[in-house]
Amino acid sequence: MNAISTSAASNSAASPIALEVARRRTFAIISHPDAGKTTLTEKLLLFGGAIQLAGHVRAKRDRRSTRSDWMAIERERGISVATSVMTFEFEGHVFNLLDTPGHEDFSEDTYRTLTAVDAAVMVIDAAKGIESRTRKLLEVCRLRDIPIITFINKMDRESRDPFEILDEIEKTLALDTTPMTWPVGRGRDFVGTVDVATGGVRLLDGDEGKTGPLRKMSPAEIAALNVTLDAGALDDELTLVREGCNSFDLDSFLEGHLTPVYFGSALRNFGVGDLLEGLGRFAPPPRAQDADKRRVEAEEGRMTAFVFKIQANMDPNHRDRMAFARLCSGKLTRGMKAKLVRTGKPMSLATPQFFFAQDRQLAEEAYAGDVVGIPNHGNLRIGDTLTEGEEINFVGVPSFAPEILRRVKLSDAMKAKKLRQALQEMAEEGVVQVFRPTDGSPALVGVVGPLQLDVLKNRLDAEYGLDVGFDTSEFQLARWVSCEDGKKLEEFAAANRLSTADDLDGDLVFLSPSAFMIGYTGDRWPGIVFTDVKDVK
Ligand code: GDP
To answer: What is the Cα–Cα distance from 168 to 129, expressed in whole angstroms?
Structure first.
């Protein structure tokens, strides 16, 4: 048990809410496609008994069909409703695993999901090391100092030297590493791992799916398992690990500066139990969240939550949406009335839902760290705050500058007004970002993954009867601009009318054909700040 949960559990005066909070661990898995996220997810869920059959998550993915058919996209998205968050219990902890869509459907949802977690598991393919997507997702974790636990996967295959992988993490991610386990043998000769602190052993053959007590074996006994192993060399290597690597420092981990590293094979369900135990021991319980007027502690009695993701429903005739809200404090009970702070209106939480691997279930009660789905007809937006009456808004659900900008081309010019409305709604739902150029030219849409454009096109057609296409634009990049001096900002906007736009909230955005141009403009306008991340208010 870690220091935090021990203190909460041993404090007999702790409120029931504090006890519930202390046992929650809300996390995401970040990785590059094919590193093994799906396989690891399946195995983690198996530990929690959340699914009986490993392979379930994969079966879902394989059912995905072509991206050209809008129903298929929605179906795929519908399926991903069930896998957006997965809750399971293990050894007294409640784990909420939030899915970060990983493959071609990489989108802003992926980024935003990371604003709703308290820790992340970084999965690295032992043969490939750090890959581009992992680096990008880690940068997003960095924005919030999210602690990272590392799982080096596919140790059952040819892999790189473990020291080299650790070195790469330290150098390219600027993250200190502490190996918690150490692999014995490489590739085909990989026989298991040694627990660095105790010297206890797990064997690839025989200890699959295990947690808890380790085997006691001498280096000679381990070396006897495989002709390529040499007891002396093994002993030297472990000495080097113990003396040469950083020792684990909980504070440094919690601040996001150091990552504990586990080696294993998700496919063989090896090392996954140790990773899960590590998550329970070291990952923090739900953190305090910053709101505009104050910081909200997870143990507070009154319910607060924020919406970080909206999922459209599958039926195109109904504008039903599922809003995913992360609880930040208090207790949510089914049927309670909440206040939607943006509008000031009350909202009855009649059917909040929990998600398990393949099921959903009405959530009778939920606590900080939990994620509930709230069905609604479009009244909830990304970034919305729900409270029991208090006028606060959570900050920190960000918008990220899009990586792809396209000009929306409408086949029927008579429908411009309808398009405007439709784009507004799609932007509120977080499907795309919309930028309205100051010079009155047609709107630009911004996305981080190309599938978002497919989804937008298909939904505009199916739900609004709008036939649109996308033209490449002279602009490649969008940056939010701000300035402490309001007058200067106005001057900037006036002088750059041909390359500025308003976003969904009416905030000023600078559109640029290149990074060079942003730098150049910045030099000419000292005091104007260009940013690629914006907090949703
Ligand atoms: P994702 O794209 O990150 O979700 O990766 P998947 O879980 O779909 O895995 C990608 C491929 O790697 C699949 O063929 C898996 O069977 C394989 N794989 C995943 N984990 C392991 C592992 O530990 N060892 C081996 N040999 N293959 C693995």
So the answer is: 7
For residue 188, the one-letter residue type is R
Whether 341 contacts 391, CB under 8 Å? yes
pLDDT digits (tens, 9 = 90+) for 209-251: 888 899 999 999 999 999 899 999 999 999 999 999 999 999 9
pTM: 0.83
Integer Cα distance of 403 and 230 in angstroms: 51
Give the Cα separation of 401 and 510 in Å (integer): 11
Q: Is 100 annotated as a binding residue?
A: yes
Q: What is the pLDDT of residue 52?
A: 38
Burial class (CB in 10 A: 0-12, 13-18, 19+), 461: middle
Q: Which helix (H) or strand (E) holds 534?
A: strand 533-536
Q: Is 107 helix (H, G, I), strand (E, B) or coil?
A: coil
**304 contacts 328 by C-beta, under 8 angstroms:** yes
What distance in Å separates the CA atoms of residue 64 and residue 415, rounded to the nearest whole number? 33
What angle, 0 to 180 degrees and rounded to 10, lies between the N-to-C axes of helices 162-173 and 132-143?
Answer: 50
Of the candidates 536, 477, 522, 525, which has an alpha carbon nearest to the alpha carbon of residue 501?
Answer: 477
Return the best residue to mutate from 30, 39, 265, 272 for the ligand 1 pocket (most ligand atoms within 8 A of CB).
39
Q: Who contacts 24 (Cβ-Cβ below 8 Å, separation ≥6)?
A: 93, 94, 95, 96, 285, 286, 367, 368, 369, 370
Tell me the CA–centroid distance for residue 53 and ligand 1, in Å.
Answer: 17
Q: What is the pLDDT of residues 73-112, one digit of tens each?
A: 444 544 344 457 888 889 999 999 998 765 555 567 788 8
User: Is 4's pLDDT higher than 70?
Assistant: no
Atom of ligand 1 nearest to the CA of 39: 7
Q: Average model confidence (pLDDT) for the chain?
A: 86
156 Cβ inside 6 Å of ligand 1: yes
Tokens of 61: 């993915």
Best residue among 29, 121, 267, 274 to mutate for probing ligand 1's pocket (most ligand atoms within 8 Å of CB) is 267
| Whole-angstrom distance, CA of residue 93 vs CA of residue 285 | 10
Euclidean distance between the first and the last CA atom of the chain, given in angstroms as a whole number: 37
Q: What is the pLDDT of residue 450?
A: 80
- pLDDT per residue as tens digits for the range 420-464: 999 998 888 888 999 999 999 989 999 887 878 888 898 899 889
Longest dimension (CA), the chain: 81
In angstroms, the CA 270 to CA 203 distance is 8
pLDDT in tens, 8-34: 444 456 899 999 999 999 999 999 989
The CA distance from 469 to 238, in Å, is 60
pLDDT at 123 > cutoff 90: yes
Number of H-type helices and E-type strands within the chain? 16, 32
Ligand 1 midpoint to CA 37 (Å): 7
ipTM over 0.85: yes
Ligand 1 near 39 CB (within 6 A): yes
